[in-house]
Amino acid sequence: MAEVSSCSVQIIGGDGSFNVDGLHHFVRATNLPDRGRDYAVVAIVGPQSSGKSTLMNHLFDTKFKEMDAFEGRSQTTKGIWIDKCAGIEPFTIAMDLEGTDGCERGEDDTAFEKQSALFALAIADVVVINIWCHDIGREQASNRPLLKTVFQVMMRLFSPRKTTLLFVIRDKTKTPLEKLESNLREDIKKFLNPRDHEGAPLSEFFNVEVTALSSYEEKEEQFKEQVAELRERFFHSISPGLAGDSRGVVPASGFSLSAQWIWKDIKENKDLDLPAHKVMVATVRCEEIANEKLHCLFANEGWLVLEADIQVRPVPEFRKRLDAVLDTYLSEYDRETIYFDDDVRTVKRQYLQSKALEEAYKRVPNWPAPTPAPAPPSIWSNLPAAVSIAVSVAEFVVNFLT
Hints:
The protein is of the alpha/beta class. It has 2 domains: about 10-250, 3-Layer(aba) Sandwich (Rossmann fold), CATH 3.40.50; about 280-365 and about 375-400, no CATH class. The strands form 2 sheets. It has a 7-stranded mixed beta sheet with strand order 1-3-4-2-5-7-8, with helices on both faces. Strands 6-9 form a two-stranded parallel sheet. Strand 3 and strand 4 form a beta hairpin. The chain is built from 13 helices and 9 strands. Helix content is about 45%, strand content about 10%.
C-alpha cells in the first residue's frame, strides 16, 4: 500500500487491499462528514497512459502522479486514488483509477479492471471515460476492452439513480464532434445485450454526455482552454447538473463506511444492491451517533450536577431536569442523522432515548426505573423485505463484532 500524502490518498492498492486508515485520514482532513448530501464524486477510467491523471489535475487542480513522457509509456497509477477537487462547490472528490489494458497485469488478468470499474459506477456521481479519438469506430481499438468492461459490470449494479457517463474524446481531429458522438454511440450499442436490457436504451441506465479535447502535447494552450470550459460544468453539479441525480446518495458521514463495504462485496464477487446497502450504512452510523450522544450526555455538566444532587436529597423535578439534558442530545442526534434513512434514524432515536433513561435511573438510588414503552409493532412493516433483512443483518454484524 502506497503511503498517504497530504495531497492524494491511495484508498485501494494494486493488490486490491483497502486503505482504511488512509481514507479515514482523508475524511478527517477535508471535513467531509460536515457536508451532508452536499458533495459529489467524479471518477475517471480509461486505457493506460491515456492522460487520465493529467486531465484530472488540470480539471480539478488535484495532485495525482502523472506519467513522464520522456521516460516512456508505462503504468503510473496503481490501484485507486482520491483527492479533493480544489475550488469546486459542491465539495467534490476526484477518483483516479488504474488504467485498463496495461501490460503489467497481463492479457488475461482483467479481474481488477472489472472490480475497479464496478466500484467507480457504484461510488461516483460522474464517471469520466477517457478515450482516444482515433479509436472511435475501429473494430480493433484500445477503448473496446474498456467499454466492454463498463457495460459488463453495469449488470451487477442495482441502483435507483442514474450515473452520468462523461465520454472525453482525447486528441480530437478535424472530424466534427457530432459525427464522433454518433460513431461512439454505435460502438456502445455493440456491448449492450438486448436480452439483459429488454431492448431499453442506454439512457435508461445512464445520463450520457460527450465532449472532446485537443492534444495536450501538440496543442497545450488550446487543451487548457477547453479543460477550463469543462471545469465550469462541475460547479453546482448537483443542483441540478452533471451529478444531478441524488437518489440513493449516502450522507457524507457514511461515505467511508459505504466505500469499504462496497469494495468488500465487489471482492467477494457479490452483486450490489445499493438501496439495501444504504440502509445498512444508515443502521451502523445512526447507532454510532446515538452511542456518541449517550456518552456525551453522561459527561454533561447538567447531568453531573443532577446526579450529585440526587445522591444527597430527593429531587422532585428529577425527570424534568433529566429531560432538559436529554433533549439537547436528541436534537444533536436529529441534526447529525438528518440525511439517513428516515425509518432507521427513528428506530435509533428511540434506542438513544430508552438507553438514556434506563442508564439514568440505574444511577439513582432507590428510584424505580420507568416501565419502557412497548416497541411499535409495525415500525418495519412498511419497509421492503430486502431492506428489513439488510437492517437485521447489519445489526447482527455490529453486535457480533462488538
